[in-house]
Amino acid sequence: MAILVTGGAGYIGSHTVSELLDHGEEVIVLDNLEKGHREAVLAQTFIHGDVRDRELLDQIFRRYDVEAVVHFAAYSLVGDSMKDPLAYYDNNVAAAQILLTKMIEHGVKRIVFSSTAATYGEPRQIPIQETDATEPTNAYGETKLAIEKMMKWCEQAYGLRFISLRYFNAAGAHPDGHIGEDHDPETHLIPIVLQVALGQREALSIFGDDYPTEDGTCIRDYVHVMDLAQAHRLALEKLRETGKSGIYNLGSGTGFSVKQVVERAREITGHPIPTRVAPHRPGDPAVLIASSQKAREELGWRPQFEDLDTIITTAWAWHRSHPNGYRKEEMRG
Ligand code: UFG
């Protein structure tokens, strides 16, 4: 029996594929490589194609004995989603609708879904719990929430079983150093900070230093990508064992400010990492911290790379060995 991983060439997808392979799973990756990287795919079976391609999905489900789907393939940039929400509805919601339709048609009834803290919007309490209100403040979060709801109705109507994992701030890289984070354009804090340390950027723009936090910069809950990968594997096991659907936050339960991240990165890289203060980025809440109690209790999630130094150290190892991301290999190839 195989696991179909859509978006398995992307950042979190590729690390999850690595984790699944390490635990003896048979993995098939489907990715259109719009954002993902062929070099990041460790699975033997790679299918270059789009989730919205109904015929391709028919072929995959006919040819392989797919037991469950882990669905990453999606757009995930908050800013872009505000400029072009319809592209997000197409690539995220419409694609999920097609994928779920084909899964049901072919009798595949388990899915682990890549969701986000952006489903909550501005938090009403910290730490955020799964039972808190979901009022996304951007189209990206809205599309992920729409898919969660679609899966809920599919459970009632067709017996689909789903686990939705709401990530907070994914960061870090595989400790082996062979896969890591490579976005173009890069918008995330830790890789940008490390690009400054590598001399690829002059300075970090801190998006606001007058938030109601201790040092005035935004606080986020950084969670290591390998710990996210572990959670996907555990979610699959949970679906197999109990057939029980659920929604789970994945974060460390600890928040760090932008300035604290920069401070730790200075220490780890030995680089001064200059900063300058820039205007607020629209839609940035001051503080986002997850309660991951439920994932720990129900999935048995045990993060292994929890502290910020480990996150930055593994990311730094990846950035130093791959200063151009996967492009170096692409050029060689
Ligand atoms: N930041 C800067 N300068 C930068 C980049 C980021 O100051 O150049 C700040 C942001 O303002 C924010 C923090 O660093 O306060 C983290 O920003 P990221 O862009 O790394 O991450 P976000 O918190 O904006 O978003 C991430 C994911 C989203 C997800 C969200 C949920 O990218 O998909 O976490 O917490 F929805």
From TrEMBL:
<feature type="domain" description="NAD-dependent epimerase/dehydratase">
    <location>
        <begin position="3"/>
        <end position="251"/>
    </location>
</feature>
<dbReference type="Pfam" id="PF01370">
    <property type="entry name" value="Epimerase"/>
</dbReference>
<dbReference type="GO" id="GO:0003978">
    <property type="term" value="F:UDP-glucose 4-epimerase activity"/>
</dbReference>
<keyword id="KW-0520">NAD</keyword>
<protein>
    <recommendedName>
        <fullName>UDP-glucose 4-epimerase</fullName>
        <ecNumber>5.1.3.2</ecNumber>
    </recommendedName>
</protein>
<keyword id="KW-0299">Galactose metabolism</keyword>
<comment type="pathway">
    <text>Carbohydrate metabolism; galactose metabolism.</text>
</comment>
<keyword id="KW-0413">Isomerase</keyword>
<dbReference type="InterPro" id="IPR001509">
    <property type="entry name" value="Epimerase_deHydtase"/>
</dbReference>
<dbReference type="InterPro" id="IPR036291">
    <property type="entry name" value="NAD(P)-bd_dom_sf"/>
</dbReference>
<comment type="subunit">
    <text>Homodimer.</text>
</comment>
<dbReference type="InterPro" id="IPR005886">
    <property type="entry name" value="UDP_G4E"/>
</dbReference>
<keyword id="KW-0119">Carbohydrate metabolism</keyword>
<comment type="similarity">
    <text>Belongs to the NAD(P)-dependent epimerase/dehydratase family.</text>
</comment>
